[in-house]
Write a structure and sequence with these properties.
The structure holds two protein chains of two kinds. Chain A is an all-alpha fold. Chain A contains 20 helices and two strands. Chain A has one domain. In chain A, helix 6 runs parallel beside helix 13, helix 9 packs across helix 18 and helix 11 runs antiparallel to helix 12. Classes of the chains: A mainly alpha, B alpha/beta. The interface between A and B is large, with 63 and 70 residues.
Chain lengths: 498, 331
């Protein structure tokens, strides 16, 4: 009953005209920022922070910023599907089947299912947050360094499964990604590694630059080879909306993605990325036609896109219930609230119920706004594929260059963008799937940091991993899956021979 | 043509975004002598951290006393070195300043590794705003009730005490290492990437004790998740008046914590330094500012340019001596 009253109170806050306008504006800006390559929610919120001082009510300010954050999760899939250009780590996986679908003239279906999946997962995430926030927060805290290590390792191994049939090539890509990630600051000792005296390399390569180069520019460079027809992907636009068959195939994927995203996304640092990876791997595993993955399977878009949106909802839980921000965007919201005199944490719900419930209510409304905003846009985005390659390629080049420059204001990043583009082209020529490399680059510092923290905690003894129940069950589950898979493969081969 | 229409919508969308991003901070402006244009203040730490919070609070009040707004830019990386170096290499015209002067990478790091610039010579101190002291805490369910319990436990069991710290070789790490060396117990500091991560690991009960700045720690103390054990500063911190210092408890360790001041690149004209110091002085006595800072659990400890210069030299010397005496190195 208390919950119901709180939520009702929240809606009375969120439904005031000013808060509705700001929720809409945040969702709109978030969508735009998610679509534009290079511009991320964290940078946008940071730029808008001074403007929030002028907004007198803290609820309105956080509603705006939260809108930008979850709005960008909706927009993020657009360029991944249309241009093979992931704007953030959590939508790298979407490129794999999403872009293949676009090439086959099914961009509309991919975008549509991504929007619908995002809506369902986002809303379910908020329902989960409304009901179980305090319990989930405890779950998040129970992930110490050893547990994070196991989760990141599972994420890495899942990333290899993105490589399609050739596991060896996937492992090579993963190793390369880990090597690239080791450039810059050592996460434990704080010393600079492999920077070769280049000041810009002291903090390592930037993820967005790397991903845009290897995926997006690599695609453009290989597009330059085909002088035949001037078209970037295809002029086939196909049916805009997902069919009933698509829906039937995606239904369970959305459900599973939502659950995975909600639970894994709550873990601070890398939760959203890992949840999208795990969701993809799970879909591939349970699918009746795993060979279709990597060739444009709609479940490969629906699952991960649902997972990262559920994760964006649940990542508010540690902030609102514990006062612990889990990622850069949430950290900015944390800062804005503190400056406004509102301390997020266990007392928030008593001290400022209007903030707690107001934000939750606005997230319900924001997700509906996003669906209404994004579904008509699907038709519009799909038209992007009609733009001739000769126009599209330079525009993408320009926007990715602006994007990577804007992250740190360094010209060096534009050079690295082009360098990664050429490298991405090379990978295409050699038939290497870049997904595992890019994801290993994100997960590498997590794996390294968590493992070394664990070993510091145990004075160098590996026994620390054997005494942690969560660690053991995660690794056990993974080994069981791997074993089951290899048994199936062996049996298939055996029967083939016979 | 459909393509044409679509392109136009994309352009409109982009214009909206860029206009929104650019116009918002510049909504407030006027003109006259020194601040003729917005002043960029570089924070070499990630957004949302304690230095960033301080900068954002100053930013909010700056416009009350200056004719042009202040714009905070986060440039994290290299433990703070990357952003600070950017300020050192910028034009000394008073339009690029550095907030956070006196942090670990200014006063601690030079004693541990080669720096690409000299924090004392290449920067001019403008004013000190705050000091983030270091508190030693333990989880609410831990068997320790005082710092003596920690020492006794480690001596009796002969086991190392695992300690969560925000970053390697920062003020918190040095403070805890010094505590270990002074008492002869083995302290293993486990560095994380920032205060949010280290406090959540400690709150989850994954480590025995931890250190942090009051702004990160106090909310957890209030929530009953942490118990404060000691303060590693020469005197008590006004934000934590009931927590005794290590010295009060008979352990001869005290550090300066992480000092937070404003600085300009060497060569910035004296008048401009004086003007900015004047603005900061006014901000530091603004009751609204004091209230916001109290809310953030950051004490306001203002010092003018010259005094602050002396203070920072003293702190650097003291850290160098401590590091030598304790034989601390990063490896």
């Amino acid at each position: 009953m208390e919950l119901f009253a709180g939520l009702l109170n929240g809606f009375s806050v969120a439904l005031t005209p000013i808060n509705l306008i700001f929720a809409f504006f945040g969702a709109l800006l978030g969508t735009a920022v998610g679509v534009l390559p290079g511009l991320g929610p964290a940078a946008t919120i940071a730029l808008l922070l001074p403007a929030t001082y002028a907004i007198s009510s803290p609820v309105t300010a956080i509603i705006l910023m939260a809108g930008i954050f979850y709005g960008s999760m909706y927009g993020g899939s657009t360029t991944s599907i249309l241009l093979n250009l992931p704007g953030e780590a959590a939508s790298v996986v979407t490129c794999i089947d999403g872009y293949k679908m676009a090439q086959k003239g099914r961009a509309g279906a991919a975008l549509g299912i991504a929007a619908i999946g995002s809506f369902i997962a986002g809303t379910a995430g908020i329902v989960g947050m409304t009901l179980f926030a305090p319990i989930i927060a405890k779950f998040a805290l129970s992930f110490g360094p050893p547990e994070k290590f196991s989760l990141a390792v599972v994420g890495l191994l899942m990333a290899v499964t993105l490589s399609g049939a050739n596991v060896v090539k996937g492992l090579i890509m993963m190793a390369l990604g880990l090597l690239l990630a080791s450039i810059g600051l050592d996460p434990i000792s704080g010393k600079t590694r492999f920077s070769f005296g280049v000041i810009e390399l002291q903090s390592g390569f930037d993820f967005v630059t790397l991903a845009m180069g290897i995926f997006g520019l690599g695609e453009i460079f290989s597009g330059l080879e085909s002088t035949v027809k001037s078209e970037i992907v295809t002029t086939k636009v196909g049916q805009v909306w997902p069919t009933l068959k698509d829906w039937a195939a995606s239904r369970m994927a959305i459900l599973r993605g939502t659950l995975l995203g909600f639970f894994i996304g709550v873990i601070p640092g890398g939760g959203a990325v890992i949840s999208s990876l795990v969701s993809y791997a799970v879909e591939k595993k349970v699918s009746k036609h795993p060979e279709a993955f990597g060739q444009g399977a709609i479940e490969g878009v629906a699952g991960p896109e649902s997972a990262n949106n559920a994760a964006s909802s649940s990542s508010f839980i540690p902030l609102l219930t514990l006062g612990i921000p889990g990622n850069a965007s949430i950290a900015m919201i944390f800062a804005a609230l503190l400056i406004k005199g509102v301390t997020p944490g266990p007392f928030l719900i008593q001290e400022h119920p209007e903030v707690f419930w107001g934000v939750i209510a606005s997230m319900y409304l924001g997700n509906i706004m996003l669906l209404i905003l994004n579904l008509p846009l699907v038709g519009l985005w799909v038209q992007l594929l009609r733009v001739p390659f000769g126009i599209m390629a330079p525009v993408i080049l320009l926007f990715t260059a602006i994007g990577s420059y804007s992250i740190q204001g360094q010209v060096f990043d534009i050079y690295s963008l082009i360098g990664f583009g050429l490298f991405g082209y090379l990978l295409r020529k050699l038939h290497f799937e870049p997904g595992p490399l890019v994801l290993a680059f994100v997960l590498g510092p997590l794996v390294e940091g968590a493992m070394r923290q664990s070993l510091l905690m145990s004075s160098g003894s590996f026994s620390i991993f054997l005494t942690r129940p969560i660690f053991l069950s995660l690794i056990g589950l993974f080994l069981l899956l791997a074993f089951g898979q290899s048994m199936v493969t062996i049996r298939k081969r055996f029967f083939k021979k016979v | 043509m459909k393509g044409e229409k679509m392109k136009r919508s994309v352009v409109v969308l982009m214009v909206i975004v860029f206009a929104a991003l650019i116009l918002f901070p510049a909504l407030l402006s006027a003109a006259d002598p020194y601040p003729m244009k917005p002043v960029t203040v570089i924070v070499p730490m990630a957004a949302g951290g304690s230095s960033d919070l301080l900068a954002r609070t100053v930013e909010k009040f700056w416009i009350k006393y200056a004719k042009q707004p202040m714009v905070v830019v986060n440039k994290p990386g290299g433990g703070g070195v990357v952003g600070t170096e950017g300020v050192v290499r910028s034009k000394p015209d008073g339009y690029t300043l550095y907030l956070g002067y006196g942090s670990g990478h200014d006063v601690v790091m030079p004693s541990l590794q080669k720096m690409p610039y000299d924090p004392l010579k290449d920067l001019i101190p403008i004013s000190r705003i705050s000091i983030h002291s270091v508190v030693i805490v333990t989880g609410a369910n831990a068997p320790f009730h005082s710092i003596k319990d920690v020492i006794a436990w480690s001596r009796k069991e002969g086991k190392p005490v695992t300690t969560a710290v925000s970053v390697k070789a920062g003020a918190v790490d040095i403070a805890l290492t010094a505590f270990g060396k002074a008492t002869g117990i083995k302290i293993v500091t486990v560095p994380f990437s920032g205060g949010a991560e280290s406090t959540s690991a400690l709150a989850g009960g994954h480590l025995m004790i931890g250190g942090g700045h009051p702004s990160e720690i106090i909310p957890h103390i209030k929530a009953g998740r942490f118990k404060p054990l000691a303060l590693v500063l020469p005197q008590r911190d006004p934000t934590l008046p009931n927590v005794p210092t290590l010295k009060e408890q008979g352990i001869d360790v005290a550090i300066w914590g992480s000092i937070k001041g404003l600085a300009a690149p060497a060569g910035t004209p004296k008048e401009i330094i004086r003007t900015i110091d004047g603005i900061i002085k006014k901000i530091c006595s603004d009751p609204e500012f004091l209230k916001t800072m109290a809310n953030l659990n950051q004490p306001v400890l203002y010092q003018g340019s010259e005094e602050f210069g002396k203070f920072i030299r003293q702190a650097t010397d003291d850290y160098a001596k401590l590091i030598k005496q304790l034989n601390i190195s990063i490896d």
